[in-house]
Amino acid sequence: MARPFSGIGSRTLETAQMLKDNDLYPFFRPIEDSEGTVVQIGGRDQIMIGSNNYLGLTHHPHVKEAAIKAIEKYGTGCTGSRFLNGNLAIHEELEEKLARYLGHEKALVFSTGMQTNLGAISAVCGPRDCMLFDSENHASIIDASRLAMGATFKYKHNNMEDLEEQLASNVNRFQKVIIVADGVFSMTGDIAKLPEMVALADKYGAYVYVDDAHGIGVMGDKGRGTMNHFGVTDKVDFNMGTFSKSFASIGGVVSGSAEAMEYVKYNARSFMFSASMPPSAVATVAACLDVIYADDSLHQRLWDNVEFMRNGFKEIGFYTYNSHTPIIPIFIGDDLKSMQVTRFLQDNGVFATPVVPPAVPKGEALIRTSYMASHNKTELTKVLEVFSEAKKRFEIPSCMVH
To answer: Domain 61-294, CATH 2.60.120.280 — does that match?
Structure first.
Protein backbone atom coordinates (compact mmCIF):
# COMPACT_ATOMS: atom_id res chain seq x y z
CA MET A 1 0.00 0.00 0.00
CA ALA A 2 1.36 3.41 -0.97
CA ARG A 3 2.19 5.77 1.86
CA PRO A 4 -0.03 8.89 2.11
CA PHE A 5 1.64 12.01 0.80
CA SER A 6 1.04 15.50 2.04
CA GLY A 7 2.72 18.78 1.18
CA ILE A 8 2.14 22.48 0.88
CA GLY A 9 -0.29 21.82 -1.98
CA SER A 10 -2.63 19.62 0.08
CA ARG A 11 -5.24 22.35 0.40
CA THR A 12 -5.28 22.71 -3.37
CA LEU A 13 -6.05 19.00 -3.66
CA GLU A 14 -8.90 19.35 -1.15
CA THR A 15 -10.40 22.23 -3.13
CA ALA A 16 -10.08 20.27 -6.38
CA GLN A 17 -11.85 17.28 -4.81
CA MET A 18 -14.64 19.51 -3.49
CA LEU A 19 -15.19 20.91 -7.00
CA LYS A 20 -15.20 17.39 -8.47
CA ASP A 21 -17.72 16.20 -5.88
CA ASN A 22 -20.02 19.06 -6.92
CA ASP A 23 -19.49 18.55 -10.67
CA LEU A 24 -17.82 21.97 -10.96
CA TYR A 25 -14.21 20.99 -11.68
CA PRO A 26 -13.23 22.98 -14.80
CA PHE A 27 -9.66 21.79 -15.43
CA PHE A 28 -8.07 18.91 -17.38
CA ARG A 29 -11.18 18.48 -19.50
CA PRO A 30 -10.40 15.67 -21.99
CA ILE A 31 -10.90 16.93 -25.55
CA GLU A 32 -11.84 13.98 -27.75
CA ASP A 33 -11.83 15.73 -31.12
CA SER A 34 -11.05 19.18 -32.49
CA GLU A 35 -11.78 21.17 -35.59
CA GLY A 36 -10.13 24.35 -34.32
CA THR A 37 -13.11 26.49 -33.35
CA VAL A 38 -15.17 23.49 -32.17
CA VAL A 39 -14.00 20.74 -29.82
CA GLN A 40 -15.76 17.64 -28.53
CA ILE A 41 -15.99 16.78 -24.83
CA GLY A 42 -18.06 13.88 -23.57
CA GLY A 43 -19.41 13.39 -27.08
CA ARG A 44 -20.79 16.95 -27.20
CA ASP A 45 -19.59 19.82 -29.39
CA GLN A 46 -18.26 22.94 -27.68
CA ILE A 47 -17.40 26.27 -29.29
CA MET A 48 -13.80 26.85 -28.21
CA ILE A 49 -13.20 30.32 -26.74
CA GLY A 50 -10.56 29.20 -24.25
CA SER A 51 -7.70 28.71 -26.69
CA ASN A 52 -4.62 30.75 -27.60
CA ASN A 53 -4.90 29.65 -31.23
CA TYR A 54 -5.39 33.30 -32.24
CA LEU A 55 -4.80 32.92 -35.96
CA GLY A 56 -6.68 29.62 -36.14
CA LEU A 57 -3.79 27.90 -37.92
CA THR A 58 -3.71 24.54 -36.08
CA HIS A 59 -5.94 23.02 -38.76
CA HIS A 60 -4.76 25.03 -41.78
CA PRO A 61 -4.10 22.64 -44.72
CA HIS A 62 -0.67 24.13 -45.58
CA VAL A 63 0.43 23.97 -41.95
CA LYS A 64 -0.66 20.36 -41.47
CA GLU A 65 0.94 19.29 -44.75
CA ALA A 66 4.27 20.88 -43.75
CA ALA A 67 4.26 19.06 -40.40
CA ILE A 68 3.54 15.72 -42.07
CA LYS A 69 6.30 16.21 -44.67
CA ALA A 70 8.81 17.08 -41.92
CA ILE A 71 8.04 13.82 -40.10
CA GLU A 72 8.42 11.88 -43.35
CA LYS A 73 11.85 13.46 -43.94
CA TYR A 74 13.33 13.75 -40.43
CA GLY A 75 11.26 11.37 -38.30
CA THR A 76 9.33 12.24 -35.16
CA GLY A 77 12.10 13.72 -33.01
CA CYS A 78 15.74 14.74 -32.74
CA THR A 79 16.54 12.71 -29.58
CA GLY A 80 19.20 15.16 -28.48
CA SER A 81 20.10 18.78 -27.82
CA ARG A 82 21.00 21.34 -30.46
CA PHE A 83 24.57 21.28 -29.13
CA LEU A 84 25.08 17.65 -29.99
CA ASN A 85 23.00 15.61 -32.42
CA GLY A 86 19.74 17.58 -32.52
CA ASN A 87 20.62 20.58 -34.69
CA LEU A 88 18.72 20.29 -37.99
CA ALA A 89 19.11 22.57 -40.97
CA ILE A 90 15.45 23.55 -40.56
CA HIS A 91 16.14 24.82 -37.01
CA GLU A 92 18.64 27.33 -38.38
CA GLU A 93 16.43 28.22 -41.34
CA LEU A 94 13.53 28.94 -38.96
CA GLU A 95 15.76 31.16 -36.80
CA GLU A 96 16.71 33.21 -39.85
CA LYS A 97 13.04 33.52 -40.88
CA LEU A 98 12.03 34.60 -37.39
CA ALA A 99 14.79 37.19 -37.10
CA ARG A 100 13.62 38.81 -40.36
CA TYR A 101 9.98 38.62 -39.28
CA LEU A 102 10.57 40.13 -35.85
CA GLY A 103 13.03 42.75 -37.06
CA HIS A 104 16.01 41.74 -34.94
CA GLU A 105 19.52 40.67 -35.98
CA LYS A 106 19.25 37.12 -34.72
CA ALA A 107 16.79 34.67 -33.15
CA LEU A 108 17.24 31.49 -31.15
CA VAL A 109 14.54 28.79 -30.83
CA PHE A 110 13.95 26.71 -27.68
CA SER A 111 11.91 23.56 -27.09
CA THR A 112 9.13 25.40 -25.20
CA GLY A 113 8.18 28.94 -24.27
CA MET A 114 8.73 28.14 -20.59
CA GLN A 115 12.25 26.92 -21.36
CA THR A 116 12.92 30.10 -23.34
CA ASN A 117 12.29 32.36 -20.35
CA LEU A 118 13.99 30.03 -17.88
CA GLY A 119 17.11 29.88 -20.02
CA ALA A 120 17.39 33.36 -21.49
CA ILE A 121 16.54 35.34 -18.34
CA SER A 122 18.75 33.29 -16.03
CA ALA A 123 21.59 33.58 -18.57
CA VAL A 124 21.50 37.36 -18.98
CA CYS A 125 21.05 38.25 -15.29
CA GLY A 126 24.31 37.59 -13.45
CA PRO A 127 25.14 37.86 -9.74
CA ARG A 128 25.90 41.59 -9.96
CA ASP A 129 22.76 42.40 -11.97
CA CYS A 130 19.12 42.99 -11.11
CA MET A 131 15.76 42.68 -12.82
CA LEU A 132 12.72 44.92 -12.46
CA PHE A 133 9.49 42.93 -12.92
CA ASP A 134 5.96 44.01 -13.66
CA SER A 135 3.83 42.61 -10.81
CA GLU A 136 1.58 40.72 -13.27
CA ASN A 137 4.33 38.96 -15.22
CA HIS A 138 3.82 35.36 -16.33
CA ALA A 139 4.76 32.48 -14.02
CA SER A 140 7.66 31.46 -16.30
CA ILE A 141 9.32 34.83 -15.67
CA ILE A 142 8.91 34.42 -11.93
CA ASP A 143 10.47 30.95 -12.09
CA ALA A 144 13.29 32.32 -14.24
CA SER A 145 14.07 34.90 -11.55
CA ARG A 146 14.52 32.07 -9.05
CA LEU A 147 17.14 30.51 -11.33
CA ALA A 148 18.95 33.79 -12.07
CA MET A 149 21.89 34.78 -9.90
CA GLY A 150 20.84 38.44 -9.69
CA ALA A 151 18.30 40.30 -7.57
CA THR A 152 14.66 40.89 -8.49
CA PHE A 153 12.41 43.84 -7.64
CA LYS A 154 8.76 44.28 -8.63
CA TYR A 155 7.00 47.42 -9.75
CA LYS A 156 3.24 48.01 -9.78
CA HIS A 157 1.49 46.72 -12.88
CA ASN A 158 2.07 49.00 -15.87
CA ASN A 159 2.91 51.84 -13.47
CA MET A 160 5.73 53.79 -15.09
CA GLU A 161 6.18 56.12 -12.11
CA ASP A 162 6.85 53.14 -9.86
CA LEU A 163 9.17 51.67 -12.50
CA GLU A 164 11.16 54.90 -12.61
CA GLU A 165 11.49 54.92 -8.83
CA GLN A 166 12.85 51.38 -8.98
CA LEU A 167 15.26 52.36 -11.74
CA ALA A 168 16.50 55.42 -9.89
CA SER A 169 17.13 53.48 -6.69
CA ASN A 170 18.83 50.49 -8.30
CA VAL A 171 20.71 51.62 -11.40
CA ASN A 172 23.84 52.60 -9.46
CA ARG A 173 23.77 49.54 -7.22
CA PHE A 174 24.07 46.92 -9.95
CA GLN A 175 26.19 46.26 -13.02
CA LYS A 176 23.16 45.66 -15.28
CA VAL A 177 19.49 46.51 -14.73
CA ILE A 178 17.00 44.61 -16.90
CA ILE A 179 13.33 45.59 -17.15
CA VAL A 180 11.26 42.44 -17.73
CA ALA A 181 7.57 42.61 -18.68
CA ASP A 182 4.91 40.82 -20.69
CA GLY A 183 4.04 42.54 -23.97
CA VAL A 184 0.41 41.39 -23.71
CA PHE A 185 -0.60 40.21 -20.24
CA SER A 186 -2.09 36.75 -20.55
CA MET A 187 -5.04 36.97 -18.13
CA THR A 188 -6.46 40.45 -18.72
CA GLY A 189 -5.23 41.16 -22.26
CA ASP A 190 -3.61 44.36 -20.98
CA ILE A 191 -0.83 45.80 -23.18
CA ALA A 192 2.52 46.89 -21.73
CA LYS A 193 3.38 50.59 -21.94
CA LEU A 194 6.42 49.86 -24.08
CA PRO A 195 7.08 53.40 -25.41
CA GLU A 196 7.37 54.76 -21.87
CA MET A 197 9.31 51.70 -20.75
CA VAL A 198 11.99 51.96 -23.44
CA ALA A 199 12.27 55.72 -22.82
CA LEU A 200 12.98 55.04 -19.14
CA ALA A 201 15.43 52.29 -20.06
CA ASP A 202 17.26 54.74 -22.32
CA LYS A 203 17.29 57.39 -19.59
CA TYR A 204 18.76 55.06 -16.95
CA GLY A 205 20.87 52.80 -19.17
CA ALA A 206 18.77 49.69 -18.52
CA TYR A 207 18.00 46.75 -20.80
CA VAL A 208 14.49 45.73 -21.86
CA TYR A 209 13.27 42.10 -22.04
CA VAL A 210 9.74 41.60 -23.40
CA ASP A 211 7.82 38.34 -22.99
CA ASP A 212 5.55 38.65 -26.03
CA ALA A 213 4.02 35.16 -25.90
CA HIS A 214 0.54 36.60 -26.50
CA GLY A 215 1.74 39.43 -28.75
CA ILE A 216 3.73 37.85 -31.56
CA GLY A 217 1.47 36.67 -34.34
CA VAL A 218 -1.20 39.14 -33.17
CA MET A 219 0.05 42.67 -32.47
CA GLY A 220 1.70 44.96 -35.01
CA ASP A 221 2.21 44.63 -38.76
CA LYS A 222 1.40 41.00 -39.71
CA GLY A 223 1.76 40.09 -36.04
CA ARG A 224 5.38 41.16 -35.62
CA GLY A 225 4.65 41.81 -31.97
CA THR A 226 4.01 44.47 -29.37
CA MET A 227 7.37 46.13 -30.04
CA ASN A 228 6.39 46.53 -33.71
CA HIS A 229 2.90 47.72 -32.69
CA PHE A 230 4.54 50.64 -30.86
CA GLY A 231 7.39 51.13 -33.34
CA VAL A 232 10.11 50.44 -30.75
CA THR A 233 11.63 47.19 -32.11
CA ASP A 234 15.13 48.66 -32.16
CA LYS A 235 14.77 49.71 -28.50
CA VAL A 236 13.91 46.22 -27.19
CA ASP A 237 17.05 44.27 -26.32
CA PHE A 238 15.41 40.85 -25.88
CA ASN A 239 12.05 39.81 -27.34
CA MET A 240 10.65 36.44 -26.35
CA GLY A 241 7.74 34.61 -27.96
CA THR A 242 6.09 31.21 -27.96
CA PHE A 243 4.86 28.94 -30.75
CA SER A 244 2.00 27.46 -28.69
CA LYS A 245 -0.30 30.40 -29.42
CA SER A 246 -0.45 31.99 -32.87
CA PHE A 247 2.06 29.56 -34.36
CA ALA A 248 0.01 26.40 -33.85
CA SER A 249 2.75 24.29 -32.31
CA ILE A 250 5.11 24.20 -29.34
CA GLY A 251 8.45 25.90 -28.75
CA GLY A 252 9.78 29.35 -28.08
CA VAL A 253 12.03 32.05 -29.48
CA VAL A 254 14.15 34.87 -28.15
CA SER A 255 15.50 37.54 -30.49
CA GLY A 256 17.87 40.49 -30.24
CA SER A 257 21.34 41.50 -31.34
CA ALA A 258 23.64 38.87 -32.81
CA GLU A 259 26.04 39.28 -29.88
CA ALA A 260 23.30 38.87 -27.27
CA MET A 261 21.88 35.79 -28.96
CA GLU A 262 25.30 34.15 -29.16
CA TYR A 263 25.70 34.80 -25.43
CA VAL A 264 22.32 33.19 -24.67
CA LYS A 265 23.11 30.28 -26.97
CA TYR A 266 26.16 29.29 -24.92
CA ASN A 267 24.85 30.16 -21.45
CA ALA A 268 21.15 29.22 -21.33
CA ARG A 269 21.05 25.86 -19.56
CA SER A 270 17.50 25.05 -20.71
CA PHE A 271 18.75 25.43 -24.30
CA MET A 272 21.95 23.46 -23.81
CA PHE A 273 20.42 20.57 -21.88
CA SER A 274 17.01 20.11 -23.51
CA ALA A 275 16.23 18.05 -26.58
CA SER A 276 15.58 20.29 -29.55
CA MET A 277 12.20 21.15 -31.08
CA PRO A 278 10.87 18.16 -33.04
CA PRO A 279 10.91 18.47 -36.84
CA SER A 280 7.13 18.66 -37.15
CA ALA A 281 7.00 21.61 -34.73
CA VAL A 282 9.74 23.48 -36.60
CA ALA A 283 8.00 22.94 -39.93
CA THR A 284 4.67 24.02 -38.45
CA VAL A 285 6.05 27.38 -37.32
CA ALA A 286 7.73 27.98 -40.69
CA ALA A 287 4.46 27.14 -42.48
CA CYS A 288 2.53 29.52 -40.22
CA LEU A 289 4.90 32.29 -41.28
CA ASP A 290 4.17 31.38 -44.92
CA VAL A 291 0.43 31.76 -44.30
CA ILE A 292 0.89 35.04 -42.42
CA TYR A 293 2.86 36.53 -45.32
CA ALA A 294 0.49 35.18 -47.98
CA ASP A 295 -2.94 35.86 -46.45
CA ASP A 296 -3.53 39.60 -46.09
CA SER A 297 -7.03 39.00 -44.70
CA LEU A 298 -5.91 36.81 -41.79
CA HIS A 299 -5.39 39.57 -39.24
CA GLN A 300 -8.38 41.54 -40.46
CA ARG A 301 -10.61 38.52 -39.73
CA LEU A 302 -9.09 38.21 -36.27
CA TRP A 303 -9.63 41.87 -35.35
CA ASP A 304 -13.15 41.87 -36.84
CA ASN A 305 -14.04 38.98 -34.53
CA VAL A 306 -12.41 40.67 -31.54
CA GLU A 307 -14.37 43.89 -32.15
CA PHE A 308 -17.61 41.93 -32.64
CA MET A 309 -17.19 40.19 -29.27
CA ARG A 310 -15.95 43.26 -27.42
CA ASN A 311 -19.01 45.23 -28.57
CA GLY A 312 -21.30 42.28 -27.84
CA PHE A 313 -20.08 41.87 -24.26
CA LYS A 314 -20.33 45.62 -23.70
CA GLU A 315 -23.93 45.62 -24.91
CA ILE A 316 -24.80 42.76 -22.54
CA GLY A 317 -23.17 44.69 -19.69
CA PHE A 318 -20.04 42.76 -18.77
CA TYR A 319 -16.87 44.34 -17.39
CA THR A 320 -14.04 43.32 -19.74
CA TYR A 321 -11.07 45.24 -18.31
CA ASN A 322 -11.02 47.55 -21.34
CA SER A 323 -9.12 44.86 -23.26
CA HIS A 324 -7.95 45.71 -26.78
CA THR A 325 -6.49 42.31 -27.64
CA PRO A 326 -7.99 38.92 -28.62
CA ILE A 327 -8.02 38.11 -24.88
CA ILE A 328 -11.34 39.39 -23.47
CA PRO A 329 -11.70 38.66 -19.74
CA ILE A 330 -15.15 38.66 -18.13
CA PHE A 331 -15.10 39.87 -14.52
CA ILE A 332 -16.99 37.53 -12.16
CA GLY A 333 -15.53 38.32 -8.73
CA ASP A 334 -16.37 35.26 -6.62
CA ASP A 335 -14.23 32.14 -7.15
CA LEU A 336 -17.05 29.62 -6.78
CA LYS A 337 -19.34 31.61 -9.05
CA SER A 338 -16.65 31.55 -11.77
CA MET A 339 -16.71 27.74 -11.59
CA GLN A 340 -20.51 27.68 -11.74
CA VAL A 341 -20.56 30.00 -14.75
CA THR A 342 -17.92 27.87 -16.51
CA ARG A 343 -20.06 24.77 -15.96
CA PHE A 344 -23.14 26.59 -17.27
CA LEU A 345 -21.22 27.61 -20.40
CA GLN A 346 -20.05 24.04 -20.97
CA ASP A 347 -23.57 22.67 -20.51
CA ASN A 348 -24.67 25.11 -23.20
CA GLY A 349 -21.93 24.31 -25.72
CA VAL A 350 -19.25 26.92 -24.90
CA PHE A 351 -15.71 26.06 -23.74
CA ALA A 352 -14.17 28.86 -21.67
CA THR A 353 -11.77 28.84 -18.73
CA PRO A 354 -12.07 30.32 -15.22
CA VAL A 355 -9.14 32.20 -13.69
CA VAL A 356 -8.92 32.38 -9.91
CA PRO A 357 -6.26 33.45 -7.37
CA PRO A 358 -3.28 33.33 -7.36
CA ALA A 359 -3.42 33.90 -11.14
CA VAL A 360 -5.51 37.03 -10.41
CA PRO A 361 -5.91 39.08 -7.20
CA LYS A 362 -8.31 37.83 -4.53
CA GLY A 363 -11.89 38.78 -5.29
CA GLU A 364 -11.18 39.23 -9.01
CA ALA A 365 -12.01 35.79 -10.41
CA LEU A 366 -12.81 35.98 -14.10
CA ILE A 367 -13.71 33.95 -17.14
CA ARG A 368 -10.92 34.25 -19.69
CA THR A 369 -12.19 34.24 -23.24
CA SER A 370 -10.09 34.55 -26.39
CA TYR A 371 -10.85 34.61 -30.10
CA MET A 372 -9.49 33.30 -33.38
CA ALA A 373 -9.41 34.50 -36.94
CA SER A 374 -11.22 31.27 -37.85
CA HIS A 375 -14.32 31.81 -35.66
CA ASN A 376 -17.44 32.50 -37.69
CA LYS A 377 -20.21 34.93 -36.73
CA THR A 378 -22.73 32.13 -36.13
CA GLU A 379 -20.43 30.64 -33.47
CA LEU A 380 -19.73 34.01 -31.88
CA THR A 381 -23.40 34.97 -31.81
CA LYS A 382 -24.18 31.70 -30.00
CA VAL A 383 -21.44 32.50 -27.45
CA LEU A 384 -22.97 35.92 -26.75
CA GLU A 385 -26.43 34.41 -26.33
CA VAL A 386 -25.16 31.90 -23.76
CA PHE A 387 -23.22 34.57 -21.87
CA SER A 388 -26.27 36.84 -21.84
CA GLU A 389 -28.28 34.08 -20.16
CA ALA A 390 -25.42 33.42 -17.71
CA LYS A 391 -25.30 37.08 -16.70
CA LYS A 392 -28.97 37.03 -15.69
CA ARG A 393 -28.89 33.62 -14.05
CA PHE A 394 -25.77 34.25 -11.93
CA GLU A 395 -26.23 38.02 -11.42
CA ILE A 396 -22.77 38.78 -12.79
CA PRO A 397 -21.80 42.42 -11.98
CA SER A 398 -21.37 45.01 -14.74
CA CYS A 399 -18.37 46.63 -13.06
CA MET A 400 -15.46 45.46 -10.93
CA VAL A 401 -16.56 45.01 -7.32
CA HIS A 402 -14.90 43.37 -4.32
So the answer is: no
